[in-house]
Write a structure and sequence with these properties.
Helix content is about 5%, strand content about 55%. It is mainly β. The chain is elongated and about 80 Å long.
């Protein structure tokens, strides 16, 4: 029995050595798609609040009036306390290069695109338009998206990739996150305008999963990725008004105050001194993908 075990161990060692010396699959190109879920302050139940009536005063009149209707306003917690994001789609790609003869350590470069709110429909209702004679309700619809384009560089460990069949993996990546949020408002009086915010933040992500070799030059990958999106460069731009028509506002993820008019009906005064709190922008991604091995060597 001992001799049989010894022969099996020797055969395994020789097989491992021959495979590692062959150095198959030195370069891997991975294309992924999946579902992305927001966490922490990126997540929000909704970005709209509804009211059954609107109280207002006419110019030069101290009397308060009520305008009935189903009024839809931007939630004042949006940007101030969270980003109102919900589940969406993800696509990405990873290039991997082995850096050891056993093919277990890899350098990786990645690009990823996450589009939140993919399954959330437009929000509709009415909005009061203030005039000198009073307030008039107009139908309105809102569309809101929050996206991230990401570039990353990191390292990966795939301890059984030398088998050419099955390999779990784990990697860590330093990321450059280009966040973009866009809010579009359209009324029945043919008035359409948008508010847009853009910012760069530095972060990290960790991915884990498993690869299955399905042929000489391709395979299947299943995995999960968790992103820490704004570890560095958090900021609140006090000089940047959050107003309709602006297309380069800050995401305001640091502590500070700002001014905005996106929360109130047209014609209302700007809100000043809005206190933003420091926010954590994290999300998770379940993905499935295809691995391509473009430089597989043929066995002699």
């Amino acid at each position: 029995m001992k001799h049989i075990i010894s022969l099996l161990l020797l055969a395994g060692i020789l097989s491992f050595t021959n495979t590692s010396q062959a150095q198959f699959d030195k370069f891997v190109l991975q294309i992924n798609a999946g579902i992305v879920t927001p966490y922490n302050d990126l997540k929000g139940d909704d970005y709209i609040v509804y009211s059954d009536n609107y109280r207002y005063q006419r110019p030069g009149d101290t009397t308060w009036y009520n305008l009935p209707g189903q009024f839809a306003f931007i939630d004042s917690n949006l940007i101030k306390n969270n980003y109102g994001a919900s589940t969406g789609f993800y696509i990405g790609g990873v290039a991997k290069i082995n850096i050891d003869k056993y093919e277990t350590f890899r350098l990786i470069g990645s690009f990823n695109y996450a589009s939140f709110n993919s399954f959330r429909p437009s929000r509709t209702g009415s909005i009061p338009v203030l005039t000198y004679s009073g307030a008039i309700p107009y139908p309105i619809s809102y569309d809101y998206t929050f996206n991230n384009f990401q570039l990353g560089i990191g390292v990966e460990i795939a301890p059984t990739s030398f088998t050419k069949v099955f390999s779990p993996f784990i990697n860590g990546t330093f990321t450059f996150n280009f966040f973009n949020g866009q809010l579009v408002r359209t009324t029945s009086i043919n008035d359409s305008t948008k508010f847009q915010m853009n910012d760069l933040r530095l972060g990290l992500n960790v991915s884990t999963g498993v690869e299955f070799k399905a042929g000489d030059q391709w395979g299947i990958v299943l995995g999960y990725k968790y992103d820490f999106g704004n570890l560095l460069l958090k900021n609140t731009d006090r000089a940047s008004f959050l107003e309709w028509g602006r297309t380069n506002a800050s995401i305001n993820d640091g502590t500070g105050t700002y001014t905005a008019n996106i929360y109130d009906p047209p014609g209302s005064p700007y809100r000043t001194g809005i206190q933003a709190r420091e926010k954590v922008i994290n999300w998770g991604t379940f993905f499935i993908g295809i691995n391509f091995y473009p430089n597989v060597k043929k066995k002699k």
